[in-house]
Amino acid sequence: MEKREKLYEGKAKIMYATDDADLVIQYFKDDATAFNAKKKGTIDEKGIMNNAISCKVFEFLGANGIPTHLVKKLSDREMLVKKVEIVPVEVIIRNRAAGSLCRNYGVQEGKILSRPIFEFCYKNDAFNDPLMNEDHVVGLGLATEKEVARMRELTMKVNELMKKFFLALNIELIDFKIEFGRFKGEIILADEVSPDTCRLWEVGTGVRLDKDRFRQDLGNIKEGYQEVLKRVTGK
Ligand code: ADP
Ligand code: UDP
């Protein structure tokens, strides 16, 4: 497998082509953004940590019946993945209230939700990733009704699996964002699962082990990622 040209550079990752048209390399950067890139910075070695954490989570989900884009971890910062056509929605699941749910609905941070809240946001920075419902997703032609149902089904399973995965590491999964893509007619999990895309609170202490340390200037930002990495890899 040969690494070829840069296809796309995003806020946190760079995608490279390979000599196989079905595969791309996902390169994880140290750049960090929040509030739709209004806040910018870098977190030393974040790319290395997020690549390692994402690979472990995808391996776990794959072993438990969730189709993912992971092919294999290539290096510290590189993951070989199936090249998908990204469905341009961010899928969010919340188990406890945090972030925009608190801002938009006046809910106390940490409130346990009586059932997980499933959200779609339009993946479009120019419009601030607005919240949308299933009718928007289908009506705007972003995904079919069948794809929406499949994304919901997979996301609910991912939530149950990841809650257990993190709880075994004494971490509570508060909420997360995932992205799906189309690969050979199938909907599969793509992008990343890391402290950039999940809210992770230590059980008992409530210590934040995720990007909220950066968003809210809580200090020890790198240490939060390191702690998750340590627990996920057992090293
Ligand atoms: P952003 O585009 O939001 O700045 P990133 O810096 O994470 O985000 O860039 C990675 C881009 O690659 C995202 O747009 C993501 O949707 C896309 N992507 C993730 N996984 C795949 C994949 N397997 N195939 C093609 N594109 C992918
Ligand atoms: N999230 C993400 N990327 C986004 C928006 C949200 O990974 O562009 C994740 C975020 O890390 C959190 C969950 O999705 O785990 C819910 O985020 P929320 O809507 O509360 O957003 P925020 O408070 O960051 O605006």
Task: Describe this protein's structure.
This protein is globular. The model has no long low-confidence stretch (mean pLDDT 98). The protein has two domains: 3-82, Phosphorylase Kinase, domain 1 (2-Layer Sandwich), CATH 3.30.200; 85-220, D-amino Acid Aminotransferase, Chain A, domain 1. Helices cover 30% and strands 35% of the residues. Strands 8, 9, 10, 11, 12, 13 and 14 form a seven-stranded antiparallel beta sheet that branches. The chain is of the alpha+beta class and 235 residues long. The chain binds adenosine-5'-diphosphate and uridine-5'-diphosphate.
Give the averaged pLDDT, no decimals: 98
CATH architecture term of the largest domain: 2-Layer Sandwich
Detail the poorly predicted runs.
none
Intertermini distance? 29 Å
Shape: globular
- Number of strand segments: 14
Quickly count the domains: 2
Q: Residue share in helices?
A: 25-40%
The proportion of strand residues reads 25-35%
Structural class: alpha+beta
Q: H/E element string?
A: EEEEEHEEEEHEEHHEEEHH
Q: Which small-molecule species are bound to the chains here?
A: adenosine-5'-diphosphate, uridine-5'-diphosphate
- What name does the CATH topology of the largest domain carry? D-amino Acid Aminotransferase, Chain A, domain 1
What is the CATH superfamily of the largest domain?
ATP-grasp fold, B domain
